Give the backbone structure.
Amino acid sequence: MANPEIIDDFTNNEPPPTIPGGTQRPSKRVDLERFNAIRRRQELNALLTQRTCGVSEAVVQDFEPGDVPLLLQIVHERDPNGNQAIRKHAVRALGEFRNVEVLEVLWRISSDDLEPEGIRGQALLALAHVTPRMAPGLLQGSLDDESPLIRQAAVSALTEVGGQSALNLVTELLERERDIGVRQRAAMAAETIGKPRIPEGDL
Amino acid sequence: MNRASKSELIQHLRITPKAADRVVALRQDQRFNSLQQLRSVAGLQARTLNRIKGRVLLAGDPRLHILDVTASDDYIFSHKPFALTVHFANPADLEVAIVSVAVLWAGESFVVEQELTSEEVQQCHVDVRFDEERSLPVGPAEFHVALYSASGAQGSFRKTFYVLPSNPLSLSLSPAGATVTGTWSARGDYQDGSDTFLTECEITIGNGDTGIVSMNRRVNWKFWDGGVGGTLVESGAFDWPGSISVPGLGTWRGGIWFSSPRGSGIYNRYNGKDDMTIEIEMVATGGRRVAGTITCRVMLAYGVNIIKVGDFDAQEGVDLYSAVDVTRQIYERRDITFRSVLRWIIHDSDAGSYRIINSEAECYDLFRDWSVPNDYIDVYVCQDFATGSFDGLSGDVPGPAAKGGDRDGVAVDKTGFTDGSGAKRLQISYLGMLIGHEVGHYLGLPHINEAGNLMLSNSGTNDTNLNYDQYRLMLPHGFIVYL
């Protein structure tokens, strides 16, 4: 290394290399008027990654009930060439819709050990939002999952749900849990879980 | 797995009759809740198990699969129309409707979309045509292809091609050696032992004619400050050691290097962190003159501590460092590279609840509790971000140039997925972009609203550009040095 000093006087006065034909090429788009699902899919792709960086301001992501089939489609696409972050955020977005099909899909994902833990954990959180009343019963099994990351995510989901049932499950977990990360999260949960936090609603 | 008959198991899972018998026997004792239960089936090798996982995962998969993207005429030539052939599989017989290709090249990215004909859908391939107006110059071009069904299903693929020169006789310069910079600049590489700057570059002469072209051996060189025609820094000439013949419809390549001692004009410019333009001129035996230019400069660098938060699978570890390579490439395209990548881990037993980040505050706690005491940027790669919406966070914009406190790092979600064989993987391109984005904040870059830019608030895999103003903005950061 020549000189590890702070650079504050760098000079760059070379003209940029010229590109024959200029630096712009016109895009050629298909009019998506006839392809509503594709248009909405492209909008959802953008919407789901609207705030992927925590430095930006929080934004309200408006999903419509009609988006559920497309969100489910995105969740079903386990394309290694696709954007996994979009899929994960689609799982999260499904938590806004209280219907049985969504519940089934989230339940299947959360208990599928072929899914990455990040997606399963997100499904547990979303599941808590879809059905806060049933959530403690549904999450109970995940508290005994082989993966400590899933147990930790289940504790977070129970914290979101709140209420006495959630508190009981967390307290019981504390008595048997050996993983330090899960224990820490459960201990925090035991202190903070109070009244139910997610408004009840029917499926 | 719980309902299929023996013959269906053999047909769909492609297993032996004996193995099918064992699967049936196993499920009589215990219903299948997980494919992991197959591990107890005798005679199923790991490879077979992985194949079964893949087939079960794909059963009823509504996806479109893009299998490959090729140049329809084998090559892409500069400033000539071309076409890409997109080969796909459509197991669910979806109504494939539109193909969309985003082009990342030396200029601003653009998109070409096209509807598919019923014949193309039936044949499972489509030619995407790029006319004269959308032809490309010599150099690398990356194509991000998306295929959509009318119902909104999407398949994705990416492929890089090198656009070849198509003009009759041309000379171009490119970086050479291990010191390539990404804006296609040659790099002034300081040599500690000899107190010199070494500049390497490669000459390519392209011949678009069918006949062989012979070149004179004389090579004229000039170093300019402020571009060709600006201030001449140094100039000279030398004779190439052998004869030069450029084959018809082919290229000739040769490497050259300049060693500039202390006190020389080139050394002084590099030492003053100033960049220059190299001009090379050669003449064909018939008298045709060809010349090319390239910018040369010293390279900026920063170091990263890649810190795994919690234990990673072996393949995830490999993917993580591939993602770090993507980050390095993103910055090298703007002439900033890594001093070094140092690898660290906070094991499960120590990481505690930091494996899953639940809030910004928890992220800051992680930065406060853990730190590497050096002048590299701490990059924490967590198992999961369960924050609600974001996948990464920088302690501050810019981050501090000294360690200590709760803002001296960046953290990202490892972005895991399971591949078709059931292996845990990390999405290399997205994670590489994500690390690059958060490091950009640490080096002082705010969000920007510029298509394709790395610092979009919602940047995705394709958003990897850094502009010149951003390059300038990062320079004063205390963790940036020049190599």
